[in-house]
Fold this sequence. Notes:
Elements: H1 3-54
Amino acid sequence: MPSGLRDRVQRILPLAKVADEIVSEETEILKKLILRMFEVMHRVAKLLCDHVKRSRWPSPGFEKG
């Protein structure tokens, strides 16, 4: 490997390691946030479904009879 290229790679490599650490930390934060968002969406969907089930207005096509 030419010495100029090797010098450039050695200068960039520490920055790549730092960037990788930052991305890893942010990915962990995003994983937790995404899981929490799905939990909230599930709770909202369940609440809405329960509300519709208790509603006095029948849904079209689901009339008793």
